[in-house]
Specification:
Length: about 325
């Protein structure tokens, strides 16, 4: 009999790729997504799709009762570190309280393992390379909410025996990203700007560094993790090893898109300047190995982006604080 898994956020970028990998591995896969940032066409055909929110406690309980999930993969979140300062209530409600709804039902229905995608945002700044044993010091509400869920999972394991696996991915990009989201996912933002014949906008001097990680390297490892008992109740960084500046990324995207578009530097925003992590643990326990270089991954995404075309950016409607909000985010 097939094991049944729940993938929250499965119509979004990472969730859709993960659902595909789980189906390949033979799992009956149920996708839950409210389509606030994802698209129904991203959901694999062989998955059961349920439109709904992780904040809908009644729906969550009904789904657990109906499907009796063996495993839960929780990716449903609004992942925007910079914007999270200005959407604090929205951030904590969606990223923290929604997670607790899922954890409660996972305990109630004896889920075998709860897999949570956290973020390297939990580390904060000046902790390089970021290692799992480093004490997190998140600096933005997004990172704070992610770390709070991590702590709750540890507590749930100690009190109720709910096994968990926590992944801290970083700067993941690839096909199926929401190109119209101007607040997050810089690779998609650059590609969308090029297709709209607009300059590529970079906050500050562009010397900030990130280890941009291709989804094709990340999703398969997360999917197979539940088969490896040594991974249970552990935390893993996952992503590319080599960091690049945002300036270099911009040039890489322009080359992949066959563009000579100019770049435009905006005033610097409050963000972690350098972020990259150690992956020794995930390599040892889960056999993680990157297959795609930055250039290869960006080219794959660019080929996909050119096929679907540009997307109109929508203004985020739930801005709670406008003080110190970057001007480019205020514009309609």
């Amino acid at each position: 009999m097939k094991s049944t898994v729940l993938v929250t956020g499965g119509a979004g970028f990472m969730g859709a790729h993960l659902a595909e990998e789980l189906i390949k591995l033979g799992y009956k896969t149920v996708v839950l997504d409210d389509l606030s940032g994802g698209f129904e066409e991203n959901v694999p055909n062989k998955a059961v799709f349920v439109k709904g929110s992780i904040l809908n406690f009644k729906l969550i309980r009904e789904l657990f009762k109906k499907y009796k999930f063996d495993y839960v993969f929780h990716l449903g979140a609004y992942a925007a570190e910079g914007l999270s300062h200005f959407i604090r209530i929205f951030n904590y409600r969606n990223n923290l309280l929604g997670s607790i709804n899922l954890i409660n039902e996972s305990i109630r229905y004896n889920v075998k393992c709860f897999v949570f995608t956290s973020s390297i945002a939990v580390y904060g700044t000046n902790q390089l390379p970021m290692k799992e044993e480093t004490t997190p010091q998140p600096e933005d509400p997004y990172g704070i909410s992610k770390y709070a869920v991590e702590l709750d999972l540890k507590s749930a394991y100690e009190m109720f025996g709910l096994n968990y696996i926590i992944f801290r991915p970083h700067n993941v990009y690839g096909e199926k990203q929401n190109l119209g989201d101007k607040y997050r996912n810089v690779v998609g933002i650059f590609m969308n700007q090029i297709m709209q014949n607009k300059p590529l906008t970079i906050f500050g001097e562009g010397k900030q560094t990130r280890a941009f990680s291709y989804i094709g390297d990340v999703a398969p490892i997360i999917a197979k993790s539940i088969k490896i008992k040594k991974a249970y109740n552990q935390v893993f960084n996952i992503g590319a090893d080599k960091p690049y500046t945002v300036n270099y990324l911009a040039e890489t995207v322009k080359k992949a898109m066959s563009s000579n578009q100019k770049t435009k530097h905006l005033p610097a925003r409050n963000e972690v300047v350098h972020a990259y992590s150690s992956h020794n643990k995930v390599k040892k326990v889960l056999g993680y190995k990157t297959k795609f270089s930055l250039e290869e991954g960006v080219q794959r995404m660019a080929d996909w982006a050119k096929k679907i075309g540009s997307k109109k950016s929508k203004k985020f409607k739930n801005i709670e604080l406008t003080k110190n909000l970057p001007p480019s985010w205020v514009e309609k």
